[in-house]
Amino acid sequence: MADPAFGSARRLARMVRRGDLGCRELLDHFIDRIERLDERTNAVVVRDFERARETARSHDRRRKKARGPLYGVPMTVKESFAVAGLPSTWGFPEQHDNIAVEDAVAVKRLRAAGAVIFGKTNVPKALGDWQSFNAVYGTTNNPWDLARTPGGSSGGAAAALAAGLTGLECGSDIGGSIRQPAHACGVFGHKPSWGLLPPYGHSLFGAAAMTDISCIGPLARSADDLALALDVLAGPEEAETALALRLPPPPTKTLRGLRVAVWAEQPGHETDHETTAALHDLAGMLKREGAKVSVTARPEFDPAEAFRVYLRLLCAVLGSRATPEELQGWAERAGRLAAEDLSASAVIARSMTPSHGDWMAANEQRHRIRRAWGAFFRDWDVLLCPVINTPALPHMQEGETWERKITVNGREIPYDEQLFWPGIIGAFHLPATTAPLGVSESRLPMGMQIVGPLYADRGTIHVARLLERAWQGFQPPGGWE
Question: Would you say residue 241 has pLDDT above 80?
Fold first, then answer.
């Protein structure tokens, strides 16, 4: 029997239902791997093994009456989700004793589907970085190269999947926090249409309202698993509405006839040349398979304006979480900036304390751009574009994000400029599935965003499934057998 550690969640559930493996046996296999291997990655930082074993034993006793598509699947969730009896710190040491009394809605739905949740995975402080390190749990390493970050903020989630330490994961995304770790670790991730998956219980302070732009969503080792998790997690909370969920079907069954726009690069936003080359190679394959492909089609808006709209809306969220002292620091920093400075870091500094009128103006611009996206997707089924500027970064923990620089194609760019590719999708509430694109010359995975119109989540995941078969799927990193 092949090692189940790198199997899909769908396969793991099938093995348990058929009795090929007991639920407890499968759980212990993953626990053993964590105890032997996770010292290298530090991905599963909150461990709930004994309660999970009790759940697994109960599942084994009821196997012949097994219900739920995730029955018996051992899985972890991002540290930021409330799991009853476990801490949710978001990387803040002062929150170490913040013990959840109730599961998040997503966790309840996963348990109801039969999943066995046995731990939580690492995040950056405040979920605010493309690295995953904090003063509570330390640093998480990328299984492909331990000297590099697995990304953030769902970095522990992606690392655990790539290293075969968990069967499925649930993360969150406001600035690429599902998409970028999936890309950095070579796994699949889905940032859903905003509001499609209820986030209640994914808040440090028990917020009842949804956060603008922010979404929760699955990470997995296959597109099928994303579809499976979407079915489990999607839909409004029953306590709020009786509205039923009915998402549109995928646009085509095969690649033939699929209408694909490829946006591989954007002037002014340096993007790793291997990523752009791989996207162009993929465009060629799609043409050979009978898809209608354009590498020049673009939505009718100014990308620079769309990026600034995203930054303004993002900072309205971040500013609402900041302390008065932090806001004062941002105001002082903004006051030192030159008026002509339109860099990402400058827009961020100026946008932390918007008036309601400022926010309304940005939201109006957002909806104008959303209409442009909608018109674009009348002609194209999906858009393929980079996830972020570069493959997994070396660990970079010194200084604030606006003080850091990264090197792309031999050029030094500000760290915060990496928000471009995640932002021009996320600000406008569109679904985006991250799927493997290739492996760089330095043996690091590269991913792509598969973007669709609002609520076309089944479509973007289906295209990821087609490309998984025709182009590339998950490949385990070496040395984790």
Answer: no
Quick check: is 17 in a domain? yes
Domain span at 323: 303-367
Q: Which residues, listed in sequence order, are joined to residue 262 by a DSSP beta bridge? A: 384
Residues 6 or more apart whose Cβ sits within 8 Å of residue 194? 210, 212, 213, 214, 215, 429
Q: Is 177 a catalytic residue?
A: yes
pLDDT digits (tens, 9 = 90+) for 172-220: 999 999 999 999 999 999 999 999 999 999 999 899 999 999 999 999 9
User: Using CA atoms, how far apart are residues 75 and 69, in angstroms rounded to an integer?
Assistant: 13
Helix (H) or strand (E) holding 77: strand 74-78
Stretch (H or E) spanning 408 = strand 405-408
205 is written with which tokens? Answer: 């302070």
- Which listed residue (78, 120, 125, 191) is catalytic? 78
Query: 239 pLDDT exceeds 80?
Result: no
Residue at a domain's end among 222, 253, 284:
253
Is 316 part of any domain? Answer: yes
Is pTM, for the whole model, over 0.85? yes
Apex CA 156: angle with CA 197 and CA 476, to 5°? 100
Which one of the listed residues 88, 132, 153, 345 is annotated catalytic?
A: 153
**Which is the catalytic residue, given 177, 193, 345, 440?**
177
* Catalytic residue status for 405: no
Same domain flag for 249 and 328:
no
Residue 78 among the catalytic residues: yes
